[in-house]
Amino acid sequence: MAHAQPERITKLFQVQYPIIQAGMIWASGWRLASAVSNAGGLGMLGAGSMYPDVLKEQIRKCKAATNKPFAVNLPLLYPSINEHIETILQEKIPIVFTSAGNPKTYTGVLKEAGIKVVHVVSSSRFALKAQEAGCDAVVAEGFEAGGHNGREETTSFVLIPAVTAAVSIPVIAAGGIATGRQMKAAIILGASGVQIGSRFVASEEASCHPDFKNAVVNAGEGDTMLMLKELTPVRLLKNPFYNQVQQAEAQCVGKEKLADLLGRGRAKKGMFEGDLIEGELEIGQVSTLIDRVLPAADIVQQIWQEYNAL
Question: Binning pLDDT at 50, 70 and 90, where does residue 2 land?
Fold first, then answer.
């Protein structure tokens, strides 16, 4: 398959391996991003949970910790998006991954500054829009993924070949990938690289709370569910807060009451502060295959070695 060429991704990002660490909120600070980049992958700062001054500080710390390329993940619905764009331009970030919004809005501005732009999509239709907007690559993120997710509920095994058939730009597979075997499957299905989130949550360098990391390690099959489809779909680890959401949705309370229940800072409470009762715990289905917290470099090497052994 013409698409499945990992060198398209390694050349595009100037990295050793086509392994990208996802820019997850409350987990993807400078320690994780620099560790993944130093290990030969592409590390990424998750700007979605950062105030503008925090992003600036994180970028500078990441630059001090690695001389390799790293990226910033930018959810386009973020309230201070213009300040984040300004910081990215000032700090000369080489690669930006955009998500949750229309890629047309900022791709041109970023490309003019010589920045490589990648957009996260959940369907072939959105992948085509990203290609038309001038994106250099797309991330095809399947239903299995943690955090915010597409409403279509298309699994990675269906989405990856559908998107690779629809676009000519490189496709990065995401959702349900934590091992070299899964990476191999994604490449065979037409992807040129993989973006991995949940496996890097359970890393020593991830900025999320140790109690959340342990909850991920202890998760089994069926312990996550895609919820809040009335607002923005998000995959959650089952806990007492999840139970509240489930009850509210079963009673068809409507968007306003769901938004009230969610409130502000619920994800920070769960993932960053370690409140496993009242917090929102975002993680992918692949958490069932994660059995211990490891250094990020070991994770990169294990995935790459297993991939090559196949």
Answer: low
Decide if 132 is inside a domain.
yes
Rounded Cα–Cα distance for residues 110 and 143 (Å):
28
Judged on CB neighbours under 10 Å (0-12, 13-18, 19+), 69 is middle
Structural domain span for residue 164: 6-207+289-309
pTM: 0.96
Give 310: exposed, middle or buried? Use CB within 10 Å, 0-12, 13-18, 19+. Answer: exposed
Stretch 93-98: mean pLDDT: 98
* Cα 198 from Cα 177, distance rounded (Å): 8
For residues 232 and 194, state if they share a domain: no
* pLDDT bucket at 224, cuts 50 / 70 / 90: very high
Across-strand partners of 294? 203
212 is a domain residue: no
Report the pLDDT averaged over residues 187-201: 98
Report strand pairing: 147-148 vs 234-237: antiparallel
Q: Are residues 17 and 150 in the same domain?
A: yes
* Whether the Cβ atoms of residue 192 and residue 4 lie closer than 8 Å to each other: yes
